[in-house]
Design brief:
Elements (H helix, E strand, L loop, with lengths): L3 E5 L4 H17 L2 E8 L9 H17 L4 E7 L2 H11 L4 E5 L12 H8 L4 E4 L1
Parallel strand pairs: 1-2, 1-4, 2-3, 4-5
């Protein structure tokens, strides 16, 4: 049902809880997983490159151990727009993301809310 699942990950504690749901779905549907980290060059205080690299590496190792095909991407830009662009470019069937991650948009609207409005596919938001 879901051939490709997009999991945008940030460096929040909640991201790992959301990762469990993304992995569960990918495993049960035999899906390919795209792990996406979005960096905002205009907000460097929100990103420690070493922490992001370590997080992506840990997540990728866990995914590989489970035998789930995975592609790791790192892009720059506004998170909600980048997430939706990647979903469109890669023909993603489902986006799985959390509601309580770091608000990288820098405004009062959450990234998840904006993704729900703009996404070209269904979005599963994990509380």
């Amino acid at each position: 049902m879901f051939e490709t699942v997009l999991f945008p990950i940030d460096h929040s504690r909640e991201a790992m809880a959301t990762a469990s749901k993304a992995l569960e779905l990918a495993s049960s549907h035999g899906s390919r997983l795209i792990l996406l980290s979005v960096v905002q060059p205009e907000r460097p205080e929100m990103h420690d490159p070493d922490a992001v690299a370590a997080l992506l590496d840990r997540a990728d190792q866990k995914i590989q151990q489970l035998g789930i095909p995975c592609e790791v991407l790192e892009r720059e830009g506004k998170p909600a727009f980048v997430i939706c662009d990647v979903a469109d470019e890669r023909n993603v069937d489902l986006i799985v993301m959390g509601t309580r991650g770091v608000n990288l948009e820098g405004d009062s609207e959450s990234t998840a809310a904006r993704v729900i409005q703009l996404a070209p596919c269904p979005v599963l938001v994990v509380p």
